[in-house]
Amino acid sequence: MTAPAHERAVSVRHLPTDASMLTRVVFWALQPALLLGVIATWIADPENPALFGLTFLGVHLLLGALEYRIPARPHWRHPATEKLVVLGIAVVSFMVGGAASGLYETHLTAPLDAIRATLHLDLWPHHWPLVPQALLVFFLSEFIWYWIHRAEHRWTPVWRLSGHGAHHAFKRLNAINAGANHPIELFLIVLPAISVDLLFGVGAAAYGAVLLTLVQTAVVHSNLRLNSSVIGWLFTTNAWHIRHHSADLAESNTNYGCAAIIWDRVFGTFGDSAVVEAGVGPREPTTLEKLLMPLREPEGSVIAPTERRITRAP
Ligand SMILES: [Zn+2]
Protein backbone atom coordinates (compact mmCIF):
# COMPACT_ATOMS: atom_id res chain seq x y z
CA MET A 1 0.00 0.00 0.00
CA THR A 2 1.33 3.47 -0.87
CA ALA A 3 1.81 5.83 2.11
CA PRO A 4 -0.13 9.12 2.09
CA ALA A 5 1.72 11.98 0.36
CA HIS A 6 2.40 13.79 3.65
CA GLU A 7 4.10 10.68 5.08
CA ARG A 8 6.44 10.21 2.11
CA ALA A 9 9.76 11.94 1.66
CA VAL A 10 9.32 14.95 -0.62
CA SER A 11 12.22 16.15 -2.72
CA VAL A 12 11.77 19.85 -3.45
CA ARG A 13 14.70 19.72 -5.89
CA HIS A 14 12.89 17.67 -8.49
CA LEU A 15 10.08 18.65 -10.83
CA PRO A 16 7.09 16.36 -11.30
CA THR A 17 6.49 15.51 -14.96
CA ASP A 18 3.11 17.28 -14.91
CA ALA A 19 4.48 20.52 -13.37
CA SER A 20 2.81 23.73 -14.53
CA MET A 21 4.68 26.41 -16.49
CA LEU A 22 4.77 28.66 -13.38
CA THR A 23 6.24 25.83 -11.29
CA ARG A 24 8.89 25.24 -13.97
CA VAL A 25 9.85 28.93 -14.20
CA VAL A 26 10.07 29.21 -10.40
CA PHE A 27 12.09 25.97 -10.22
CA TRP A 28 14.72 27.06 -12.73
CA ALA A 29 14.87 30.83 -12.26
CA LEU A 30 13.55 32.05 -8.90
CA GLN A 31 16.56 31.75 -6.59
CA PRO A 32 19.25 33.07 -9.00
CA ALA A 33 16.89 35.82 -10.23
CA LEU A 34 16.12 36.93 -6.67
CA LEU A 35 19.79 37.01 -5.65
CA LEU A 36 20.83 38.95 -8.76
CA GLY A 37 17.79 41.26 -8.48
CA VAL A 38 18.41 42.04 -4.83
CA ILE A 39 22.10 42.77 -5.44
CA ALA A 40 21.21 45.02 -8.41
CA THR A 41 18.61 46.90 -6.31
CA TRP A 42 20.99 47.30 -3.39
CA ILE A 43 23.92 48.52 -5.48
CA ALA A 44 21.75 51.33 -6.91
CA ASP A 45 21.65 52.94 -3.45
CA PRO A 46 23.81 50.91 -1.04
CA GLU A 47 22.99 52.69 2.24
CA ASN A 48 19.32 53.55 1.75
CA PRO A 49 17.42 51.93 4.66
CA ALA A 50 14.01 52.43 2.93
CA LEU A 51 15.17 50.56 -0.17
CA PHE A 52 16.61 47.90 2.10
CA GLY A 53 13.31 47.38 3.93
CA LEU A 54 11.15 47.53 0.77
CA THR A 55 13.33 44.96 -1.01
CA PHE A 56 13.06 42.59 1.95
CA LEU A 57 9.28 43.07 2.17
CA GLY A 58 8.84 42.56 -1.56
CA VAL A 59 10.79 39.29 -1.51
CA HIS A 60 8.61 37.93 1.31
CA LEU A 61 5.37 38.98 -0.43
CA LEU A 62 6.49 37.28 -3.65
CA LEU A 63 7.53 34.07 -1.88
CA GLY A 64 4.32 34.02 0.19
CA ALA A 65 2.17 34.40 -2.93
CA LEU A 66 4.04 31.63 -4.75
CA GLU A 67 3.81 29.31 -1.72
CA TYR A 68 0.06 29.83 -1.74
CA ARG A 69 -0.23 29.22 -5.51
CA ILE A 70 2.30 26.40 -6.14
CA PRO A 71 3.42 24.88 -2.81
CA ALA A 72 5.89 21.98 -2.98
CA ARG A 73 4.02 20.36 -0.07
CA PRO A 74 0.36 21.45 -0.11
CA HIS A 75 -0.06 20.16 3.49
CA TRP A 76 2.64 22.64 4.63
CA ARG A 77 0.60 25.67 3.56
CA HIS A 78 -0.02 27.74 6.69
CA PRO A 79 -3.64 28.16 7.79
CA ALA A 80 -4.40 31.89 8.31
CA THR A 81 -4.13 31.77 12.12
CA GLU A 82 -0.81 29.95 12.00
CA LYS A 83 0.53 32.43 9.42
CA LEU A 84 -0.41 35.30 11.75
CA VAL A 85 1.28 33.65 14.75
CA VAL A 86 4.49 32.98 12.78
CA LEU A 87 4.38 36.52 11.36
CA GLY A 88 3.95 37.93 14.89
CA ILE A 89 6.95 35.94 16.16
CA ALA A 90 8.97 37.09 13.12
CA VAL A 91 8.11 40.76 13.72
CA VAL A 92 9.10 40.53 17.41
CA SER A 93 12.32 38.72 16.45
CA PHE A 94 13.08 41.37 13.80
CA MET A 95 12.67 44.13 16.40
CA VAL A 96 14.83 42.29 18.94
CA GLY A 97 17.43 41.79 16.19
CA GLY A 98 17.47 45.55 15.57
CA ALA A 99 17.85 46.26 19.28
CA ALA A 100 20.64 43.66 19.60
CA SER A 101 22.49 45.19 16.63
CA GLY A 102 22.21 48.63 18.22
CA LEU A 103 23.58 47.32 21.51
CA TYR A 104 26.51 45.62 19.79
CA GLU A 105 27.30 48.74 17.76
CA THR A 106 27.22 50.88 20.90
CA HIS A 107 29.41 48.60 22.98
CA LEU A 108 31.65 46.82 20.44
CA THR A 109 32.66 49.57 18.02
CA ALA A 110 35.36 51.10 20.25
CA PRO A 111 36.94 47.81 21.48
CA LEU A 112 36.96 46.29 17.98
CA ASP A 113 38.45 49.50 16.55
CA ALA A 114 41.17 49.18 19.20
CA ILE A 115 41.78 45.51 18.31
CA ARG A 116 41.99 46.42 14.60
CA ALA A 117 44.50 49.17 15.35
CA THR A 118 46.59 47.00 17.73
CA LEU A 119 46.73 44.00 15.38
CA HIS A 120 47.11 46.17 12.23
CA LEU A 121 43.99 44.57 10.78
CA ASP A 122 43.48 47.30 8.18
CA LEU A 123 43.22 44.56 5.61
CA TRP A 124 39.76 45.18 4.23
CA PRO A 125 39.85 45.60 0.42
CA HIS A 126 37.94 48.88 0.30
CA HIS A 127 39.35 49.41 -3.22
CA TRP A 128 37.34 46.44 -4.54
CA PRO A 129 33.93 47.06 -6.15
CA LEU A 130 31.11 46.86 -3.59
CA VAL A 131 29.60 43.56 -4.81
CA PRO A 132 32.76 41.44 -4.25
CA GLN A 133 33.18 43.16 -0.87
CA ALA A 134 29.59 42.26 0.06
CA LEU A 135 30.17 38.63 -1.01
CA LEU A 136 33.32 38.52 1.14
CA VAL A 137 31.35 39.77 4.19
CA PHE A 138 28.60 37.27 3.37
CA PHE A 139 30.89 34.22 3.27
CA LEU A 140 32.95 35.34 6.31
CA SER A 141 29.77 35.92 8.34
CA GLU A 142 28.43 32.54 7.26
CA PHE A 143 31.71 30.95 8.41
CA ILE A 144 31.15 32.39 11.90
CA TRP A 145 27.44 31.44 11.86
CA TYR A 146 28.32 27.88 10.76
CA TRP A 147 30.28 27.30 13.99
CA ILE A 148 27.72 29.03 16.25
CA HIS A 149 24.90 26.98 14.67
CA ARG A 150 26.91 23.75 14.84
CA ALA A 151 27.57 24.41 18.54
CA GLU A 152 23.84 24.97 19.10
CA HIS A 153 23.13 21.50 17.72
CA ARG A 154 26.03 19.69 19.36
CA TRP A 155 26.13 21.10 22.91
CA THR A 156 23.09 21.00 25.18
CA PRO A 157 23.89 24.23 27.10
CA VAL A 158 24.22 26.18 23.83
CA TRP A 159 21.04 24.57 22.42
CA ARG A 160 19.13 25.53 25.54
CA LEU A 161 20.53 29.02 26.15
CA SER A 162 20.18 30.04 22.50
CA GLY A 163 16.53 28.95 22.27
CA HIS A 164 17.40 27.50 18.85
CA GLY A 165 14.97 24.62 19.38
CA ALA A 166 12.06 27.06 18.99
CA HIS A 167 13.11 27.70 15.37
CA HIS A 168 13.14 23.95 14.70
CA ALA A 169 9.83 23.27 16.42
CA PHE A 170 7.60 24.18 13.43
CA LYS A 171 6.22 21.24 11.44
CA ARG A 172 5.26 23.35 8.39
CA LEU A 173 8.02 25.46 6.84
CA ASN A 174 7.37 28.51 4.70
CA ALA A 175 9.60 31.50 3.82
CA ILE A 176 8.28 33.46 6.81
CA ASN A 177 9.73 30.79 9.14
CA ALA A 178 13.15 32.33 8.47
CA GLY A 179 12.15 34.98 11.02
CA ALA A 180 10.46 32.59 13.47
CA ASN A 181 13.24 32.45 16.03
CA HIS A 182 13.27 32.63 19.81
CA PRO A 183 13.86 36.32 20.61
CA ILE A 184 16.97 35.55 22.67
CA GLU A 185 18.59 33.83 19.68
CA LEU A 186 18.64 37.13 17.82
CA PHE A 187 21.58 38.16 20.00
CA LEU A 188 23.53 35.32 18.30
CA ILE A 189 22.01 35.64 14.82
CA VAL A 190 23.08 39.27 14.31
CA LEU A 191 26.56 38.70 15.76
CA PRO A 192 28.46 37.30 12.72
CA ALA A 193 27.79 40.14 10.26
CA ILE A 194 28.18 42.88 12.84
CA SER A 195 31.47 41.47 14.15
CA VAL A 196 32.92 41.20 10.62
CA ASP A 197 31.72 44.74 9.87
CA LEU A 198 33.14 46.24 13.07
CA LEU A 199 36.35 44.19 13.25
CA PHE A 200 37.42 45.00 9.68
CA GLY A 201 35.76 48.44 9.42
CA VAL A 202 33.82 47.29 6.32
CA GLY A 203 31.20 50.03 5.85
CA ALA A 204 28.60 50.02 3.04
CA ALA A 205 29.31 46.48 1.76
CA ALA A 206 28.02 45.04 5.05
CA TYR A 207 24.48 46.23 4.13
CA GLY A 208 24.60 44.21 0.92
CA ALA A 209 25.79 41.11 2.77
CA VAL A 210 23.01 41.38 5.36
CA LEU A 211 20.37 41.87 2.67
CA LEU A 212 21.71 38.86 0.75
CA THR A 213 21.61 36.79 3.95
CA LEU A 214 18.03 37.85 4.76
CA VAL A 215 16.83 36.98 1.24
CA GLN A 216 18.70 33.67 1.22
CA THR A 217 17.27 32.62 4.59
CA ALA A 218 13.75 33.40 3.31
CA VAL A 219 14.28 31.39 0.10
CA VAL A 220 15.76 28.37 1.91
CA HIS A 221 12.73 28.06 4.22
CA SER A 222 10.29 28.36 1.32
CA ASN A 223 7.73 25.70 0.48
CA LEU A 224 8.55 25.73 -3.25
CA ARG A 225 10.26 23.41 -5.70
CA LEU A 226 13.68 24.92 -6.46
CA ASN A 227 16.62 23.70 -8.48
CA SER A 228 19.78 23.09 -6.41
CA SER A 229 22.41 22.52 -9.08
CA VAL A 230 25.17 25.10 -9.67
CA ILE A 231 23.71 27.64 -7.20
CA GLY A 232 23.91 24.91 -4.56
CA TRP A 233 27.69 24.68 -4.85
CA LEU A 234 28.14 27.84 -2.76
CA PHE A 235 24.69 29.00 -1.64
CA THR A 236 22.35 26.79 0.31
CA THR A 237 18.95 25.92 -1.14
CA ASN A 238 15.66 24.92 0.44
CA ALA A 239 16.42 21.23 -0.27
CA TRP A 240 19.52 21.36 1.93
CA HIS A 241 17.98 23.57 4.62
CA ILE A 242 14.72 21.64 4.96
CA ARG A 243 16.90 18.57 5.53
CA HIS A 244 18.46 20.49 8.45
CA HIS A 245 14.91 21.02 9.80
CA SER A 246 14.18 17.27 9.59
CA ALA A 247 12.54 15.56 12.57
CA ASP A 248 15.24 12.88 12.17
CA LEU A 249 18.25 13.65 14.44
CA ALA A 250 20.94 12.45 12.00
CA GLU A 251 19.44 14.45 9.12
CA SER A 252 19.08 17.56 11.27
CA ASN A 253 22.79 17.42 12.18
CA THR A 254 23.76 18.39 8.63
CA ASN A 255 23.69 21.58 6.55
CA TYR A 256 24.35 24.11 9.31
CA GLY A 257 24.80 26.93 6.80
CA CYS A 258 21.55 28.90 6.67
CA ALA A 259 22.54 31.07 3.68
CA ALA A 260 25.78 29.53 2.32
CA ILE A 261 26.46 25.80 1.99
CA ILE A 262 30.17 25.99 1.23
CA TRP A 263 31.27 25.61 4.86
CA ASP A 264 29.25 22.39 5.26
CA ARG A 265 31.00 21.07 2.15
CA VAL A 266 34.41 22.10 3.56
CA PHE A 267 33.86 20.73 7.09
CA GLY A 268 32.06 17.51 6.12
CA THR A 269 28.53 18.20 7.37
CA PHE A 270 26.81 18.47 4.00
CA GLY A 271 23.86 16.07 3.56
CA ASP A 272 21.42 15.47 0.74
CA SER A 273 18.22 13.45 0.87
CA ALA A 274 14.50 14.04 0.71
CA VAL A 275 12.79 14.62 4.05
CA VAL A 276 9.61 13.02 5.41
CA GLU A 277 8.78 15.59 8.08
CA ALA A 278 10.18 18.66 9.85
CA GLY A 279 10.12 19.60 13.52
CA VAL A 280 11.64 18.48 16.81
CA GLY A 281 9.42 15.41 17.14
CA PRO A 282 6.14 13.85 16.11
CA ARG A 283 4.04 16.81 17.26
CA GLU A 284 4.49 20.58 17.09
CA PRO A 285 4.94 22.22 20.52
CA THR A 286 2.58 25.05 21.42
CA THR A 287 3.80 28.65 21.14
CA LEU A 288 4.28 28.74 24.94
CA GLU A 289 6.29 25.51 24.84
CA LYS A 290 8.48 26.99 22.09
CA LEU A 291 9.13 30.12 24.16
CA LEU A 292 10.00 27.96 27.19
CA MET A 293 12.47 25.79 25.27
CA PRO A 294 15.53 27.46 26.89
CA LEU A 295 14.20 26.02 30.16
CA ARG A 296 12.44 22.84 29.18
CA GLU A 297 12.50 20.53 26.15
CA PRO A 298 9.00 19.67 24.92
CA GLU A 299 7.79 16.13 25.43
CA GLY A 300 8.79 13.84 22.56
CA SER A 301 11.60 16.11 21.31
CA VAL A 302 14.27 14.05 19.53
CA ILE A 303 16.37 16.81 17.94
CA ALA A 304 18.02 18.32 21.04
CA PRO A 305 21.74 17.43 21.43
CA THR A 306 21.32 14.96 24.26
CA GLU A 307 21.21 11.22 24.68
CA ARG A 308 18.33 11.62 27.11
CA ARG A 309 14.99 11.50 25.30
CA ILE A 310 12.20 13.23 27.18
CA THR A 311 9.22 10.89 27.54
CA ARG A 312 7.28 12.09 30.56
CA ALA A 313 4.48 9.93 31.90
CA PRO A 314 1.02 11.41 31.20
ZN1 LIG B 1 19.42 24.50 13.38
SSE blueprint and pairings:
Blueprint (H helix, E strand, L loop, with lengths): L20 H24 L4 H21 L10 H39 L11 H25 L1 H7 L1 H5 L17 H4 L1 H10 L4 H16 L17 H7 L4 H4 L9 H6 L19 H5 L23
Helix pairs in contact: 1-2, 1-9, 2-9, 3-8, 4-5, 4-8, 4-9
The structure holds zinc ion (ZN).
Zinc ion (ZN) binds next to helix 4 and helix 6.
Which descriptors apply to this entry?
mainly alpha; binds zinc ion; globular; 314 residues; 0% strand
Number of domains: 1
| Structure ligands | zinc ion
Share in β-strands: under 5%
Order of helices and strands: HHHHHHHHHHHHH
Average pLDDT level? 91
Task: Work out the radius of gyration.
Answer: 19 Å
Low-confidence segments, given as residue ranges, are 307-314
Q: Roughly what percent helix?
A: 55-70%
Helix-strand makeup class:
mainly alpha
The tally of helices reads 13
Shape: globular
Kindly report how far apart the N and C termini lie: 33 Å
Task: Tally the beta strands.
Answer: 0
Most strands sheet: none
Question: How would you portray this structure in words?
Answer:
There is one protein chain. The chain is an all-alpha fold and 314 residues long. It has one domain. The protein is 55% helix and 0% strand. The chain has 13 helices and no strands. It has helices at residues 21-44, 49-69, 80-118, 130-154, 156-162, 164-168, 186-189, 191-200, 205-220, 238-244, 249-252, 262-267, 287-291. α1 (21-44) packs antiparallel against α2 (49-69), α1 packs antiparallel against α9 and α4 (130-154) crosses α8 (191-200). The two termini are 33 Å apart. Zinc ion binds next to α4 and α6.
